[in-house]
């Protein structure tokens, strides 16, 4: 009797795509990654990147990804158009469009490159933090299904709407990884870069209608470096610099547990008061 095939991790199921024509893929939203309105934005971004990663013409590895959330992604099937706009000897530029019912719901651009070994320096130091294993995991929340797919261990800056007073700043510091653990790759790093709640939640310590409008990731590592991380926790830090007239920014970093910076992310977020 043949052994049963191993079951795909929920994340791999969520970003799964099927090629249907040149530059065309189809996929379906995952119940496991539902958020307030539609899927968790990080898994949507990872799905778009996955279209380029599995495209037969892809070269190199992701260096940057910009995702614009034009509208809510509804339940069910969607199409992704992945077009390599220009390919040079060691660089490649991509246009990625996600459509439902003939309308673009998410657009993205990606830049891939073949990295060459050069002089390197890390300008920003990894924050000091107790080991992930020494901290309690954040309890699961029934109202946010996607929370169950991550192991969150907060060092500081936990959003707590039961607090009577507002916080003095917007910074959060926490360890995070896929739940159950999954080896890190570019797709999962993309999703992890969007795990931080809107900064206005943390500043005001209360729920506020809010959502990411545009997000850009800068990947500082190659696949070999991500493979060395394995399935261990990453240390994430996020803060805002200004919230004004319905929009706020967010700047976030993700480090490996050896202090290596893997990702820088910036967002613009809509909020309503």
Automatic annotation (TrEMBL):
SUPFAM superfamilies: Thioesterase/thiol ester dehydrase-isomerase. InterPro entries: ACOT8-like_C, Acyl-CoA_hotdog, HotDog_dom_sf, TesB_ACOT8-like_N. Residues 35-112 form the Acyl-CoA thioesterase-like N-terminal HotDog domain. Residues 132-270 form the Acyl-CoA thioesterase-like C-terminal domain. This is Thioesterase family protein. The lineage of its organism: Bacteria, Pseudomonadati, Pseudomonadota, Gammaproteobacteria, Pseudomonadales.
């Amino acid at each position: 009797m043949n052994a049963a095939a191993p079951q795909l991790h929920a994340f791999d199921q969520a970003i799964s795509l099927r090629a249907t024509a040149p530059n065309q893929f189809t996929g379906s939203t995952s119940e496991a990654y539902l958020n307030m309105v539609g899927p968790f934005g990080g898994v949507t971004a990872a799905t778009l990147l996955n279209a380029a990663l599995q495209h037969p013409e892809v070269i190199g590895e992701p260096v940057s990804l910009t995702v614009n959330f034009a509208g809510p992604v509804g339940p069910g099937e969607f199409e992704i158009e992945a077009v390599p706009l220009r390919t040079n000897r060691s660089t490649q530029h991509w246009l990625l469009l996600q459509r439902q019912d003939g309308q673009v719901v998410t657009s993205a651009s990606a830049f891939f490159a073949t990295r060459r070994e050069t002089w390197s320096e890390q300008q920003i130091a990894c924050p000091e933090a107790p080991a992930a294993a020494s901290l309690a995991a954040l309890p699961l929340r029934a109202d946010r299904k996607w929370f169950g797919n991550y192991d969150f261990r907060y060092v500081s800056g936990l959003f707590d709407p039961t607090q009577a007073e507002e916080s003095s700043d917007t910074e959060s510091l926490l360890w995070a990884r896929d739940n159950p653990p999954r080896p890190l790759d570019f797709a999962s790093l993309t999703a992890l870069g969007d795990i931080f709640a809107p900064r206005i939640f943390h500043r005001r310590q209360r729920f506020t209608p809010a959502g990411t409008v545009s997000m850009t990731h800068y990947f500082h590592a190659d696949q070999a470096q991500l493979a060395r991380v394995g399935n261990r926790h990453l240390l994430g830090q996020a803060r805002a610099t200004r919230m004004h007239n319905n929009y706020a920014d967010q700047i976030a970093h993700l480090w490996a547990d050896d202090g290596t910076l893997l990702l820088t992310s910036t967002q613009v977020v809509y909020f309503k008061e």
